Amino acid sequence: MGLHLYQIIITLIAAVMIYNGIKNYAKGKSGQTLLKVSVRIIVWGGMAIVAIFPALTNNIATIIGMQGNVNAVILTGFILVFLMIFKLLNAIERLEQQISEVTRKEALTEINQK
Amino acid sequence: MSENPKIYIVIPAYNEEKVIADVIAEIRAAGYQNLIVIDDGSADNTQAVAKNAGVVALRHKINRGKGAATKTGIEAAKLLDADIIVTLDGDGQHDPQDIEKMIAPIRDKKCDVVLGTRLIDPRGMPWYKIMANHFGNFVTWYLFGLWVTDSQSGFRAYSRHAAETINTKADRYEYDSEVIREIYIYKLKFKEVPIAVRYTEYSMGKLQKQGFWNGIKTLYKMVWGLLS
Predict the structure, then answer these.
(1) With the CA atoms of B5, B69, B117 and B83 taken in that order, what torsion angle do they form, in degrees rounded to the nearest 10?
(2) Alpha carbon of A72 to those of A27, A42, A62, B114, B181: distances in Å?
(3) Is residue B1 included in any domain, yes or no?
(4) B59, A107: Cβ pair inside 8 Å?
(5) Residues spanned by the domain of B142
(6) In degrees, to the nearest 5, what angle opens at C-alpha A73 toward C-alphas A69 and A76?
(7) Which residues lie across from B60 on neighbouring strands?
(8) pLDDT, position B135
(9) pLDDT at A65 over 90
(10) Among candidates A89, A100, A110 on the partner chain, residue whose Cβ is nearest the Cβ of B58
């Protein structure tokens, strides 16, 4: 099976990302959880598999019911990105409120102590 | 409510060291002695100037926005057993002589919230601010279900009951609209009272005021708050 240059590059990048994720998790670095590693393996592993076996996307498109494998990949990518943005914005909103609560409690200390 | 209700004036302020002493003096001259200034993380000496003037001067260590500062002030007033709480801007735009007509309906138990409105008599208000306010009123009505003539005014008065009922989460300029939503949700009795507004070179020149881009951000936050 002859691989094109782009397939080799994507596979190498994916391999490095997966390796770093597993290494950081194994070393117990802060912020690294099993969920994060799993997501990293799925995302980058999936990219490597699609790069090496591009015909797989035809099967995915057929399963989803989309015309054209490229459309299926792009649409799936868009949906995932939108979901991530939505989650991130919600998380930011919650953090902002928590920051305000803490700031308020601190400001009211003077009155609470009286 | 007692015959002599305890009235607290809450003044959120951001970088107002040049005018806050005059604002405090003017409110005192109008007959109100219970003042709470909330310095919203100012880079200048707003809190120190307010403290020197002898009022309760609280400070947010970091800037959280006018809405957050107003809420802190209302919480402080509740802790100090306020019966009626009046909020007004710290830049001198609001005339303390209007406080009496703001609190009279609450003192007379006719309503729980009084909203100061600039648009019943908008003399002196720049035309673009009038247009922006009309748009703000429309958006507030569309999203939150209650039509008021000035949804963005910071000059308001609350009974103790309203202060304990209203629970806002908005930190910045969308706070003013969120209060309208709370009035609608909790069916609080409210009244609109015309207020004077003084647009000075100082107040119009402030970057953090509700200008066009801040207005767009406010709109986005109001819509996002409903979707999330």
Answers:
(1) -10
(2) 37, 18, 9, 56, 42
(3) no
(4) yes
(5) 7-227
(6) 135
(7) B40
(8) 87
(9) no
(10) A110
What residues of chain B have any CB closer than 8 angstroms to a CB in chain A? Answer: 38, 41, 56, 58-62, 64-65, 68, 71-72, 75-76, 79-80, 169, 171, 224, 228
* CATH code assigned at B110: 3.90.550.10
Residue B172 maps to a domain: yes
Half-sphere exposure of B96 (CA within 13 A, CB side): 20
Give yes or no for a contact between B174 and B158, defined as CB atoms under 8 angstroms apart. Answer: no
CB contact under 8 A, A107 and B169: no
Tens of pLDDT, residue by residue over B45-102, are: 999 999 999 999 999 999 999 999 999 999 999 999 999 999 999 988 899 999 999 9
Residue B206: pLDDT band (50, 70, 90) is low
Give pLDDT tens digits for B125-181.
788 888 888 888 888 888 888 999 998 899 999 999 999 999 998 898 789 989 999
Domain assignment of residue B2, yes or no: no
The answer to whether A111 contacts B64, with C-beta atoms less than 8 Å apart, is no
The minimal CB distance from A103 to the residues B61, B76, B224 is found for: B61
pTM strictly above 0.90:
no
Q: How many domains would you assign to chain B?
A: 1
> Inter-chain contact A90–B228, Cβ cutoff 8 Å?
yes
Chain A residues whose C-beta is within 8 A of a chain B C-beta are 86, 89-90, 93, 96-97, 99-100, 103-104, 106-108, 110-112
